[in-house]
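hi! just following up on the protien thing from before. the input was this:
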Amino acid sequence: MSKSINFVTADEAVSHIPSHSHIHLGSVASVPHCLIQALCRRADAGDVRDLHFHHFHTEGPAPYSDPAYEGIFFDQGFFIGPNVRKNVNAGYADYLPVHLGETPRLYRQGFIKLAAALVNVSMPDSEGRVSLGTSVDCSYAAIECADIVIGVMNPNVPFAFGNLIPLEKFTYLVEDNASLVTASFAEPTPTEAIIGKNCADLVEDGDCLQMGIGALPNALAAQLGDRKNLGLHTEMFADGLLRLIKKGVINGSCKKIDTGKVVSSFLLGSQDVYSFIDHNPDVLMRDIEYTNNPFVIAQNPHMKAINSAVEVDLTGQICADSIGTRIFSGTGGQVEFVRGASMSEGGKSITAFASRTNKGQSKIVAQLNPGAGVVTPRSDAHWVVTEYGAVDLYGRSLQERAKLLISIAHPDDREMLERQAFERFGQHFYNFSL
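and the predicted 3d structure came back as:
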């Protein structure tokens, strides 16, 4: 392979990135860490300044957000992970609010002019094409638009169908054999198991699913083993859904588009997940402009989109990206799937969360914390699920919504919430019933 492809070192490849550049990083489990390390060596040598980084959430070390590189690196991610969260909230890095499905547009329409795209890629196929493996996200658009495209060819990157890239698109190719980051998620708590069951009660045979990763989606997946002919069209998936795919519960037979295919844009999970997509024609890893397009999502009937929340106020405003003014994650694809599922024939948008935080504070609140971001506005809120039940807010007035949400709050918080609703709506709130 190395005889037919002109590889360069990581240091040589990044030496061509000029100061004052905007750089796209491959994200999630497939960050090209060898190129980041090479950029750090340039920075330590005083050879570069003012590099702006853009990416989805990244796993592993994130020196591009470190205060030690202030004035040299500045991180402006589209979604915030734990590795940069502290520095974002301290001002050493930043968050760029955007629906994830619109991130390719930032590149393609020149809102961000990319000097370089840095990505991990698979080994090439017989036609000289490589795959972005576990993280297509907005990297496909970045490769289209960047002046310099650096691919790190890594045998640990699975070859996934969907958006393949000819080798001719790369300005430089680097060899690396670092393992992709894997992640395991804790077994669901008893509370999460109940929430999973309450969500599962809204899922029927033949539905098409979207959900994220973590203990709560795994709890839901564990409740769906007796369903038949489910589909999957999602921005990401992990081990919980993989088990349903392997059991044949998810087979995509009822999907109207990409029938029989699992469609996703990025992954984070065990090595089993990464191995499953390798050369698997039943999986399409697609540009996130496709996976998260509400009009594409809506083409599959009975779409069930399950997302989470940090807190929800009594009118149905859903905060999912921040704790007060402190950025925790990002807008993500929540609104895109909320709207896509709502437009789908027989679809449902579902927001699921525990009624209380780990500190015992109610997540159903009279008012969002000052500075909290409204990711899903009250006009888009439909089903809301906690361990105490499921309610549908669609077509309900403000006072009706308050009554419904209080009914699924923690029992010890309901009197407080009713008193706060009375203060907002007046005596009539106590006098009417649903």
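Residues 303 and 347 are 4 Å apart (CA to CA).
DSSP finds 15 helices and 25 strands in the chain.
cheers
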